[in-house]
Amino acid sequence: MAITASMVKELRELTGAGMMDCKKALTETDGDMKAAVEALRKKGLAAAAKKASRIAAEGLVAFSINEDGKSAAIVEVNSETDFVAKNEMFQTYVANVAAQAAATSASDMDAFMEEPWGPDPSVTVRDALVAKVSVIGENLQIRRFDKIQTEGYIGSYSHGGGRIGVLVEMSCASVNDAVKEAAKNVAMQVAAMNPKFISRDDVPAEYLAKEKEILMEQASKENKPANILEKMVEGRLSKSMKEICLLDQVYFKDDEKTVGQYLKAVSKECGVELTVKKYIRYETGEGIEKKQENFADEVAKQIGR
What we know:
The protein has helices spanning 5-15, 19-28, 33-42, 47-51, 82-85, 88-103, 109-113, 125-136, 177-193, 205-219, 226-244, 259-270, 295-304; strands at 58-65, 71-79, 116-117, 120-124, 141-149, 153-159, 164-171, 275-283.
């Protein structure tokens, strides 16, 4: 019986196994879907399907940066538990995913997952992930990736053993040690303070209008004259901008300066004008609803299993 692409796709959806494994199982069972599922289960390749329904909100953020600091990629790969995130096999796998992202031409996750896997081009990134799930025994997800290419310099910082990762693109005419240090310091600032925007110029008008509306609603309960309320709201809005705009934030290494003032001082000192062009901040599991479980119960479940 001829094995069609739609049959392979169906078996992949049923089992979570790799494309080549699915095709082989269908060929061996002459296209019998039920028998193919059983064959994959016997090989342990269908186990990934069961695990895929479990929440993966732990894991690591990692990056791959070119030696000259001109190009970099950042990835987040999730696991179910922090134990796996600290596992050397998982860490090596995530480093390989970051290297894959640095070399990829894919513009979205679907295309990325179908690329030949760097360490073994005979399988896809998706197939390699499914195989790793079977070996490690937890649901794993390559959640996202991003890249930066620049004529300037890319600084980076990893915090909490890979829980938070930051890339910062600095615009500069040349690169020296002072520029590299400043780029790393700004990346540390972004990791710690999690700004929403680089500067006030980047804040969308709609965001400002919404914030002003919220602040006005709050202030209206204070029973003050309209002109006083307006000034109060403007003051609070300005204070808010100092918290969410990177260049307006208090610099974490010197509370007498803002980040913008720090960069001006470095620019003057090293003779290279430094500006922040872009930053990417990934935090493991952000936005994922985590399942809360009692640790003792979880251990009991594992033993019971």
